[in-house]
Design a protein that fits this description.
The structure holds two protein chains of two kinds.
Chain A lengths: L3 E3 L2 E3 L3 E3 L21 E3 L16 E4 L2 E4 L8 H12 L5 E6 L4 H10 L8 E5 L10 H4 L2 H14 L4 E4 L7 H10 L4 E4 L3 E3 L2 E2 L4 E2 L6 E4 L4 H14 L4 E4 L5 H10 L3 E4 L2 H4 L3 H16 L14
Parallel strand pairs in A: 3-4, 3-16, 4-7, 7-8, 8-9, 9-10, 10-15, 15-16
Antiparallel strand pairs in A: 1-2, 5-6, 6-14, 11-14, 12-13
Chain B lengths: L1 E11 L2 E7 L2 H6 L5 E4 L13 E4 L2 E3 L2 E7 L3 H6 L7 E8 L9 E7 L7 H9 L3 E8 L8 H6 L4 E5 L6 E2 L13 E5 L2 H14 L3 E4 L15 E4 L2 E4 L6 E3 L6
Parallel strand pairs in B: 8-9, 8-12, 9-10, 10-11, 12-13
Antiparallel strand pairs in B: 1-2, 1-7, 2-6, 3-4, 3-7, 5-6, 13-16, 14-15
Amino acid sequence: MLKTELFGVEFENPVWTASGTFGFGLEYAPYVDLNRVGAVCVKGLSIKPREGNEPPRIWETPCGMLNAIGLQNPGVEYFVEKIVPELQKYRCRVVANIYGSTVEEYAAVAKALKGVDGVDAIELNISCPNVKKGGLAFGVDPVEAARLTEAVKKATDKPVIVKLSPNVTDIVEIAKAIESAGADALSAINTLLGMAIDIRKRKPRIKNRFGGLSGPAIKPVAVRMVYQVSKAVSIPVIGIGGISTWEDAVEFFLAGASAVQVGTANFFNPKAVEEIVEGLESYLNEMGYSHISELVGDLRE
Amino acid sequence: MGFKVVENYRVCGRDYLLTVEADRETVEKIRAGQFGMVQVRSSIQFDPLLRRPLGIFNVEGNRVSFLYRVYGRGTELLTKTEAGEEVEVLMPLGNSIPEDREKYLFIAGGIGIGGLFLAARWFEEAGKDVVVLYGERSSENLSGLPFLEKYGIETVVYTEDGSYGKRGLVTKELPEFKDYTWVACGPTPMLKAVKEIAEEEKAECFLSLDRRMACGVGACLGCTVKTTEGYKRCCVEGPIFRADEVIF
């Protein structure tokens, strides 16, 4: 009922964990049955290890949080050698989220993942608001986004998902450009750029000044963007943004998402993915759907 | 996991004791110095969003307690939780205090006693030489004292206003204990001072650090601590750090 095939890969279910919120999955293995997770989108990988930003890096906001981690990661080589073999012990699919500061760096990371067993797809992070070079720079310009997508497609044999930024004037224009460049799927949305201030110290709460806003607070923005993007493209759209309950997930499927990623909710409820999977099953039964794919875009307007 | 609240009462000042009935399996895993991520709201609302990291203060049978101070909305809301309700707690988390030394000096600043008491109690019960130095602004906030007395742990109290115990800072007599292993938990200026004195006195010293955390399990990379070996996660490589590796 929940088995989902996207870009030639079969997923046990369409509920994944979002990059940056679930580590490499293994951190959560003592608390979550990774076999019940459709896919783990791992923390953004770069060609070389990255230290990340200076702390403080996180701040809680109403129904959400700001983060500016700065893509701290051990590098793609370490991931391939040490982490992928561990993840292969579980049934969950593995999506390698990748990042570079130039087109060449992105392509190099993609190349390093070429032919690696146990990596099922690549997700391009062109929307990280927390690093100075690259990231968001590619996500706000349709021409640059398309150029990058093409370069990465050439460098890899894996399906390529491109993760969209909400910090743009017209997300549809960018989505279309990326689709034309050959992306296999889109995921939306990354965090919204935000800021919080300590009024006593009169300083930003986060050392990086700005951080990405995530959590239930951004859900309506995400649902709207997934709706707009999925209407405009014919490749699958993976919905992300504040999904914390199965009801939230249903909204995204109705808006046109073919799969969803659970992010910040993992932090305050490690069982979120499992609960959403169960909730979806009973919702489908109750509403008379025989398969999750029937729910995708089934919005009555 | 959801655990039933046994009690949640104000001890004194702004300090509360939350006790939950845990299960045997969870309790057996607990080592001294670890913490739990405690949900402070009901599960039908999303604000405040994140759980709060609280040091495991005491364990009696299957009952696990957290001594916490009200600092903001999260801890304020936690005080409203009543006996009989369920709270979600992920525990035990983090590394723990090395258990193989013979002489321990615990240096607690204020609510920092919440992260040290269990170690003091267990090490005392194991027959080790244990002394607690416990500093506070004034007598009305000494929420750990009744517990230290109940378990008969040798304690020296320092208050800044002299309203209880010795007048002054908890760090003032540290050099007298240089042949002990020091474990400190408290506000950053205190930890910084302890680290410096430990270096001067060449005393072995550990710090129990507190950072804002989102996940508590090493995934979010939000609770970073700057160390001589680069950034470390307070929740998994900590909360117990060697003082000489921490960069303030």
